Amino acid sequence: MSQALGYAAASPTSPLTSFSFERRAPGQLDVAIEILHCGVCHSDLHTARSEWGAAIYPVVPGHEIVGRVTAVGDLVSKFKVGDTVGVGCMVDSCQHCKPCADDLEQYCENGFTGTYNSPEQGTGANTYGGYSNQMVVRESFVLKISHDAGDLAAVAPLLCAGITTYSPLRHWKVGPEHKVGIVGLGGLGHMGVKIAAAMGAHVVLFTTSAGKREDALRLGAKEVVVSKNPDEMQAHINSFDFILNTVAAPHDLDAFLTLLKLDGTMTLVGAPASPHPSPGVFNLILKRRSLAGSLIGGIRETQEMLDFCAAHGIVSDIEVIRMDEINTAYERMLKSDVKYRFVVDMSSLKTVA
Ligand code: NAP
Ligand code: ZN
What domains can you pick out in the chain, each with its CATH number? Predict the structure, then answer.
């Protein structure tokens, strides 16, 4: 066991504060990591506030983790002390069901182990995430980082926002011949714009914030639509091959479904605390449109995404914060006031403890 320091929510309504806890001693297949940077995902907020069902308190959020290896178990073969590594939304899974065998651990039939607020395999102990100074993770859930050392803070958001957008874009085979919509320019959305553009698609960004127009174009969108403006929306009717919807709040899906062409698909990755109003069935029937969902991505695909982003020079646009600024960051996230991902500089933990 070793003593770790983190930031935790003690209840759905309490602000996050400093919290000491124990990490397990590294087992033979484990990697011990000093955490350097941790991105702030909207899922952290949903969980800390129990918006997705009862969370187990204290909640130490954080699943966009970049750090340095400090120790490895005897049987670890992929990593050595000093390596720069990443950890995303999962730290374990059953490893024997069909999805696990197919490198789709996120769909593990026995439930993958989330990086936080999840029962550890074997012990059932609650997992604590990346808003902390160190962690211990099974080797097979640790990712190699090949980006330049100067980019590491901006790489952290790839571990969730990056893979959650990359995976559906790959699954629905987005490429140069496609017109692709990304809905919402937040943490996920801005990665979706960059990655879809790198895949060669004609990217259209939908936003409720007219002030984000220039940024969206700079990030790689060819067109920007302010979704509150019906005339701007109407100009794109029946024209999209694929739309990736990252919005974190309930909204009218029909407004986007009607923009899909014959056989087009809209995939939801945004996971609001309460349901969207039901879409009109005729909007699906009349053009054989699909409405789908997608969950993060498997470990093999996460490595593929990291290597793709390194090869294309893609990182996240970030605002670095101290750990004690996390509660203000959550409030700003709720106001869509993030450009475009907060990342906690974990060295600040030592000074605020
Ligand atoms: P975020 O940074 O807060 O971005 C969400 C964006 O949605 C906002 O920036 C805003 O963009 C738009 N938006 C917010 N409220 C809206 C509203 N009422 N109506 C329309 N648009 C609104 O959040 P995030 O970290 O990207 O996460 C987005 C969602 O994905 C969250 O629900 C999160 O839990 C979920 N998520 C899912 C997965 C998965 O595996 N499926 C993985 C990670 C996260 P504009 O200002 O451009 O409108
Ligand atoms: Zn996330």
Answer: 2-160+316-352 (3.90.180.10), 162-293 (3.40.50.720)
